[in-house]
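Subgroup meeting minutes
Present: P.N., E.W., G.H.
Scribe: E.W.

1. P.N. recapped why we're keeping a running log of single-chain structure predictions: easier to compare across weeks, and new members can see raw inputs and outputs side by side.
2. G.H. added today's entry (126 aa).
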Amino acid sequence: MIPGIVNADFEPIISLSICDSDGKVYTHEAIVDTGFNGWLSLPPDLITQLNLKWKRRGRAILGDGSECVFNIYEAVVVWDGDYLTIPIDEADSEPLVGMSLMEGYQLMVQVFEGGNVELRKVNRQQ
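Output recorded in log:
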């Protein structure tokens, strides 16, 4: 289970551990964003600090209908105790956890300041 809390802006926040290029683990708060279908976005300064490996350019349609082009990096994150290598989208925003990273999990949010956030792995029946 991955715990978190709802902040004063009603954003569900979790702590996320990210490895830099040398394998050192850093913990950062990230907003759970159900409108983001990617894995994880990080701001450019954090990507530089972690010295992440550049992989390619990406293209996305934003909520307002505009298109943006951005850099995609690669990083190892600790997700529910497991080390995962995932793509990182560069974005001028707070770190955002997207739906691709949460695949296979149930998200529960108590929508009030200080409310609980929980991500729990779901055992899907085939």
